[in-house]
Amino acid sequence: MSDRTPLARARGLGAAHGGTHHWWTQRATAVVLVPLTLWFAFSLAALGPADHATASAWLAHPVNAVLVLVLVAAMFHHLHLGLEVVIEDYVHSRWVKFATLILQKFVTIIFGFGAAFAVLKIALS
Amino acid sequence: MSERSRPLSPHLQIYRFEWPMLLSITHRFTGVGLAGGAIVLVWWLIALAIGPEYFAFAQAILGSWVGRLLLLGWTWATFYHLCNGIRHLCWDGGWGFELRIARATGIVVVIMSIVLTLASWLIAYAARGG
Fold first, then answer.
1. Using CA atoms, how far apart are residues A115 and B37, in angstroms rounded to an integer?
2. Which residues of A touch B45 (CB under 8 A)?
3. What are residue B45's phi and psi, to 5 degrees?
4. Per-residue pLDDT for B68 more than 60?
5. Which of B34, B79, B85 sits opposite A30 (nearest CB)?
6. Would an 8 Å CB–CB cutoff place B107 in contact with chain A?
7. What is the dihedral of CA A34, B79, A37, A41, to 10 degrees?
8. Distance in Å from the first CA to the final CA of chain B
9. pLDDT at residue B18 in the model
10. Residue B130 pLDDT exceeds 60
11. ipTM of this model?
12. A99 — phi, psi (to 5°)?
C-alpha cells in the first residue's frame, strides 16, 4: 500500500507501531460482515423461538454451518480490533492499558473458539 | 519536546451540538454493546451444543420480557452499526464528506436501522405464530 508519508514508509511503523494493517483488517472484516450479518439476523428471526431439533437441524446444514463459522471468525476479529481502539482511546495508564489489551485478546479468543466449537459439535454430530 | 507543553484540543463541551456527533458516538456505543451481544450469542450456540434441556432453558431466558427487550436492543444495535458501518466505508472511500450529504446519510442510517429491526421482529413473531 502506498498511502503513507515518506517518513512513515522509512520508519516502517504507523502511530500505533503497526502500520495500516489494523485499519485495513477492521475494514475488510466489516465488508465481510455486512452480508453475513444480514443473512444471520434474518435467519434467526425466521427460526423464531425454535426448539432444539429445529435450531440444531438448521445449524447442522453444511451451508449454514460454514457461513456461521465464517461469521463468527469475522465477527470476533472485528470486535477484537474495535475494542482495542476503544481501550487505546480511553485507558491512559500505560500498564493498565497493556493489561486490558492482553486480557481483551484472551477473552475474545476464548469466546471465539467457544462459538466455533459449538457450531462444529452441532454440525458434526 | 515535552509532552506537557503540547497544545490540547478543546474538550467536548466546547463544540456546538450537531446530530452527526451523536450518530458517531452511537456507532461506538453500539459496537461495544454488540461485543456483549456476541457473548450471549456464544452462550446460545453452546446451549444448543449441550442439548435439548439446557437449550430450552436458554430459549426461555431469551424469550422472557427482559430477554426480548435485550434482544430488541441488540437487533437495533446490529442494524445501526451495520448501516452506519457502510456509511463509514463510504467515507473511507472518500465519498459523502459534504455536510449536507453527511446529514442525509445519517438520517438514512437511522431510518434503515429502525426498518430492518421492525422487519426482522415481524418475521420472528410470524415464525412464532406459524
1. 13
2. 59, 114-115, 118-119, 122
3. -65, -40
4. yes
5. B85
6. no
7. -150
8. 69
9. 82
10. no
11. 0.90
12. -65, -40
Instruction: State residue B12's pLDDT score.
Output: 78
Residue B7 burial by CB count (10 A; 0-12/13-18/19+): exposed, middle or buried? Answer: exposed
> Under DSSP, is residue B3 helix (H, G, I), strand (E, B) or coil?
coil
CA pair distance B85, A107, nearest whole angstrom: 24
Give residue limits of the domains in chain A. Answer: 18-124
Q: Which CATH number fits domain A18-124: 3.30.450.40, 3.30.450.150, 1.20.1300.10, 2.40.110.10?
A: 1.20.1300.10
Total-model pTM: 0.89
Residue reference for cell 472485528: A78
| CB contact A74 to B (< 8 Å) | no
Distance CA B129, CA A48 (A): 9
Name which of B19, B121, B129 is nearest B74 in CA terms: B121
SS3 content of chain B, % helix, strand, coil (to 5): 80, 0, 20
Residue-averaged pLDDT of chain B? 93
- Cα angle, residue B107 at apex, residues B91 and A37 outer, rounded to 5°: 65
What is the arithmetic mean of pLDDT over B15-29? 90
Range A22-26 average pLDDT? 93
Residue type, B32: V
Q: Which grid cell sits at A100?
A: 486490558
Give the closest of A37, A47, A59 to B78, CB-based. A37
**Looking at residues B11-25, what average pLDDT do you find?**
86
A71 at the B interface (CB within 8 A)?
A: no
